Amino acid sequence: MLNAAEMIQANKSYTLASWVAQGTWNPIPIDRAEGVYLYDANGKRYIDWSSQLVNVNIGHSHPHVVKAIQDQVAKLCYVDPSFATEPRGRLGEMLEEITPGTLSKAFFTNGGTDAVENAMKMARMMTGRQKILTRYKSYHGATFGAMSAGGDPRRLANEPGVPWIVRLPDPYAYRNPIYRDRTQEDGDRILAEMIEDIVIAEGPETCAAILIEGYSGSSGVMQPTEVFYNRIREICDKYGMLLIVDEVMSGFGRTGEWFGIDHYPKCPPDIICVAKGITSGYIPLGATIVSSAIAAYFEEHVLHTGLTYSAHALACAAGVATLEVYHQEKLVERSRTLGKKLRAGLMDLAEKHQVIGDIRGAGLHHVIELVKDRDTREPLSPFNKPFSDPMKLAATTLKKNGLSTLVRWNMIFNTPPLIVTEEQIEEGLAILDGVLDLLDPFYEGK
Ligand SMILES: Cc1ncc(COP(=O)(O)O)c(C=O)c1O
Fold this sequence. Notes:
15% strand, 7-stranded mixed beta sheet
């Protein structure tokens, strides 16, 4: 068995890490995880305040899912996707029951990126049009198409990317100037009008779909009101475009509804993309789930796509067991209720620490944005640049004090597993409070 130092050394010497210059990668060697806690190889405990990459929704090492995986391994791990299996059929049916509108058939993928890739392909096949319209402040995955689709600066190294993506302005009420001196609803209305103008300028006959996150995620949880989503649905209908909703991060109870888009009942999607919470990360899996109209289209037309591991039996069995846990433990309702507690705790912290400029989110899906001054809203760390000293201090102290979460630019994510208890929320908030104490001296406003 490797000790902590040997683990780090082997990982650094023989493997590549995502999204970092390799020399700066300084990983914590994790040995095991249970519930909302991670334990490193030295026995130090961390509260998992982000559910890893906002995917371990049911917490770590849940015995029901562990057992289901063990049982399935012993019976059937894999057959090629032209075969039928019990876990595939059962998971498809369970997804049909919880997804909105007429969504009814799932194409299983390996994760979120290829769920998005396949959604874009299907929309292009079905409409015979090319362009996909997406938000700047969005992330949809890391292959060429999906990375171009996400407007998040992670796309920049991939540019020019694919030529058929058109980007749309963001309903970012805290910073987009359209919202200045307006209500959020009014800002959303104007933004949606601008989006219709863009569709007209692009030529609606070339536009296959609008692709949008059901609830904004890693770009910073910038979420409009229903005015925006309702208009987007209308624009899609008016111009014969499909609406693809990316629920990879916001799905499976994260925001207090089964899916982020469930907050907007007048905006049923034509396609959704899911991954992450579908298996809570126990086995990689994603899905592109289509409406009955799209499913009917592909009854007659070849679905020109495929993956060796599509509908992987072991992954589907993990998905079935994970969905059983959501139902049995009422985790969607739990996210809604405990989300209120989390939000109230963050509001209390904002009373105490002026450095918190904005709190956004729903359910157990919240971000805080840190500023130097509440009036000017100048961020505590600049957008898409290395951390400022205060933000570096925040990121390192959170870890040192036993809290593991995502910190990006001037934002700290608060997205614990949906099984988190009230006491554990208090535990996480107390660590955050201590770190914000260290940031208070950097506040420059009145
Ligand atoms: C909204 C969204 N879509 C797609 C993806 C890509 O999913 P994956 O990393 O599983 O390929 C992510 C990953 O964070 C995401 O948050």
